């Protein structure tokens, strides 16, 4: 999967188009994923791990159909796919109430569904007193809680894709959200999930895919792959640690 990245920075969309018309914009090619291939069987819960920028979310977007790969192919019935990611489609100038309907529509919920589940969404997000406030005045935790409550309001699809949906809120809310996600992923769906929490991956996944810098590093049992991944991070941390004076010659 390759992207074109502008080599010049611009101050905004207006400036970008001005520079584009002046032909002052040049691009470099960035390879986000390079020859990554793996299988997911029906009913499997597959975790995808890797350091930031390794291509994990890109994989999920390709599988869900949000991105089209520049090479290779994905064999999946996208009518059965549901991608859950927090805060997608939020308009900070709208109220929490308005964003429930905007974000819900983007996910694919009907207005009738949102009308029926509105109170449940608000209660789960713990935002009963703030729904008529503009989202730009919310804390990041409040935005995340609302995004999670909207994203998980419906029944789980046959193929469920979770992009860091558990990194949300305080400890109490994380426990509550983890319980809801466990109910979804263990209800018979085929699941692809990205998480930096190795405990979450070990406890819920039957297989783990490790992507590093756009390349497939390892596929296997959670305990084996997670251990190898954590070992790499420990080695990297050790190599980057400041040296003691006695170690410097």
UniProtKB/TrEMBL annotation:
SMART domains: AAA
Signal peptide: none
Cross-referenced SUPFAM superfamilies: P-loop containing nucleoside triphosphate hydrolases
Membrane keyword on record: no
All residue ranges annotated as the ABC transporter domain in the record: 18-238
Example GO molecular function: ATP hydrolysis activity
Key words, A-Z: ATP-binding, Nucleotide-binding, Transport
PROSITE patterns, A to Z: ABC_TRANSPORTER_2 (PS50893)
GO CC annotations on file: membrane
Family: Belongs to the ABC transporter superfamily.
Protein name according to UniProt: ABC transporter ATP-binding protein
């Amino acid at each position: 999967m390759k992207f074109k990245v502008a080599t010049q920075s611009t101050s905004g969309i207006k400036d970008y188009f001005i520079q584009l018309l002046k032909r002052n914009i040049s691009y470099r090619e960035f390879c986000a994923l390079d020859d990554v291939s793996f299988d997911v069987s029906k009913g499997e819960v597959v975790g995808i791990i890797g350091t930031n920028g390794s291509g994990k979310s890109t994989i999920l977007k390709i599988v869900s159909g949000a991105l089209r790969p520049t090479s290779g192919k994905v064999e999946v019935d996208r009518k059965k796919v549901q991608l859950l990611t927090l805060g997608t489609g939020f308009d900070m100038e709208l109220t929490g109430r308005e964003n429930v309907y905007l974000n819900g529509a983007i996910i694919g919920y009907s207005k009738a569904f949102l009308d029926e589940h509105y109170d449940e969404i608000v209660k789960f997000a713990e935002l009963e007193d703030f729904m008529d406030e503009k989202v730009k005045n919310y804390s990041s935790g409040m935005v995340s809680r609302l995004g999670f409550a909207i994203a998980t309001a419906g029944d789980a699809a046959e193929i469920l894709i979770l992009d860091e949906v558990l990194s949300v809120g305080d400890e109490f809310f994380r426990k509550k959200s983890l319980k809801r996600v466990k109910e979804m992923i263990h209800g018979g769906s085929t699941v692809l999930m990205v998480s930096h929490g190795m405990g979450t991956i070990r406890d819920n996944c039957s297989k783990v895919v490790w992507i590093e810098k756009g390349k497939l590093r390892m596929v296997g049992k959670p305990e084996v792959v997670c251990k190898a991944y954590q070992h790499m991070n420990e080695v990297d941390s050790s190599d980057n640690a400041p040296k003691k004076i006695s170690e410097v010659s």
